[in-house]
């Protein structure tokens, strides 16, 4: 990880573009200022025409950021957030850059190939320095990626209930009333609603639950010790 002095970055920028040195700040001021600094960092490292993600803020760690950069190739869409278990920076931004990758070519001669990488820049309000490191696109150690924790499971649940009903049935309504009650309890909508209510507050994000009732059968058990 490399560190970059905020004031020096701004001074270099002023020298190159005839900026006003009176506007120089000694530290990271706010999100917009950090975003400008990130641009100066990429220029100081010799990168140009880079693609930037949005700035990710640590105090919005529950919000997911969607990055859609054509330069990422196969990884065309990334959804991520700062991992509060591993990251302690206030601001983070990624710049998609090309980095040299040295390989052995013909006759054992070194050949330079360019590959898409991510320049990771982090900083904090009031800090005199920002920090940069480079990693594979979609592999930031500061971030948690949605696809890493996304689950999509199909589960078959089978259960046997023993139910005993005792009561007067003067008009012979028992079976119809019982069938209607079972259908209400074991209906698709009831199962989906109950599962959603139970799981929504325990899961990390919005959930989708879909149930399909396959078969409900009744078997008479005149004698059982279950109930």
> What Rg is obtained from the alpha carbons, in whole angstroms?
30 Å
The ordered H/E elements are: EHHEEEEEEEEHHH
Number of strands: 9
Number of helices: 5
Largest sheet: 6 strands, antiparallel
Question: What is the total domain count?
Answer: 2
**Strand-residue fraction?**
15-25%
Spatial shape: elongated
Uncertain regions: pLDDT < 50 for 5+ in a row?
A: none
The overall pLDDT average reads: 84
- Termini separation: 67 Å
Characterize this entry briefly.
The chain contains 5 helices and 9 strands.
Short key terms for the protein model shown above:
6-stranded antiparallel β-sheet; 227 residues; elongated; alpha+beta; 3-stranded antiparallel β-sheet; 24% strand
Describe the structure in your own words.
This protein has 227 residues and is of the alpha+beta class. The protein folds into 2 domains: 2-149, no CATH class; 153-227, no CATH class. 24% of the residues lie in helices and 24% in strands. It contains 5 helices and 9 strands. It has helices at 6-17, 31-44, 146-149, 174-185, 188-199, and strands at residues 2-5, 51-52, 56-57, 65-67, 78-82, 91-104, 110-123, 129-136, 143-145. Strands 1, 2, 3, 6, 7 and 8 form a 6-stranded antiparallel beta sheet that branches. The protein has a 3-stranded antiparallel beta sheet with strand order 4-5-9. β6 and β7 form a beta hairpin. It is elongated, with a radius of gyration of 30 Å.
